[in-house]
Amino acid sequence: MKILIADDSKVMRQIVTRTLRQAGYDGHDIVEAVDGKDAFEKVVAEAPDLVLSDWNMPNMTGIELLDALRGAGNAVRFGFVTSEGSPEMRGRAEASGALFLIAKPFTPEAFRDALDAVLV
Amino acid sequence: MTIALLGSEDILAIAGDLWASYLGDEPLPSVAGLVVPEVSATVSVVGEWNGLVVVGTSVRGARLVGSVLLEIDEADLSDGDVNDAFGELVNIIGGNVKSVLPGPSSLSLPLVSAGAVTVSERGAAIVAEAALEWQGEQFEITVWSSIETKGA
């Protein structure tokens, strides 16, 4: 499986990758994107099975990325990994078609809870 | 009577979760003002609630954060690595702080700067602050609110 991780922080992309491994999701191909625009281009070019995206990013935010993908007819499985986990943000994410929102700081268990339900 | 939206115990709880999740061990509560920060990271919240979240520490404190988060030796860290790691720290704290404040509001991208951040008290007030000690270094977290913000 191919997983695209979109976050403007290299540190956080590494932590997400590490947590995927700790949650038992190792052995997958990881593609990294540095912002929403980069992620959109890489989703089109690389056709990942899952996108894990930050919300607040330069050039194109995570919610703008999701809306752009859906607007272009792309139905890639998409979840947020963000520092903001308020009910309002979760509602916006769900309304745009996100499958889950994992709030930072997260644990491997939070990844398992979110991913086991969508990676079948 | 104004009900406080946020207290130092909330900040310590957020920081405790953050440290436990990513930095290996929880910090100890400390006392604000023990040291003057050498590095500061900030995020702004703009919207229904307006304010600024600041984390300040020593150069060594910021480098320790970078070293642990990236799992590399301090000697191999670039300045960009340290700024990225310390900026992500304030991003996570700011996002969690924003989540307990009235919305809708937006969170800015983090900024990392040398020295202490000084906010003019003419237009802002400290809503909550907390200090903690980790690996022998002090970390101060301050939440400033615009005085015109509801609930400040």
TrEMBL record, chain A:
SMART domains: REC (SM00448). The keyword Phosphoprotein applies. Coiled coil: none annotated. The modification 4-aspartylphosphate is found at D54. It comes from the Bacteria. SUPFAM superfamilies: CheY-like (SSF52172). InterPro entries: Bact_response_regulator (IPR050595), CheY-like_superfamily (IPR011006), Sig_transdc_resp-reg_receiver (IPR001789). Keywords: Phosphoprotein. Residues 2-119 form the Response regulatory domain. Pfam families: Response_reg. GO terms for biological process: phosphorelay signal transduction system. PANTHER family: RESPONSE REGULATORY DOMAIN-CONTAINING PROTEIN (PTHR44591:SF3), STRESS RESPONSE REGULATOR PROTEIN 1 (PTHR44591). This is Two-component system chemotaxis response regulator CheY. It comes from Motilibacter peucedani.
TrEMBL record, chain B:
InterPro entries: CheC-like_sf, CheX-like_dom. GO terms for biological process: chemotaxis. Keywords: Chemotaxis. This is Chemotaxis protein CheX. Residues 39-116 form the Chemotaxis phosphatase CheX-like domain. It comes from the Bacteria.
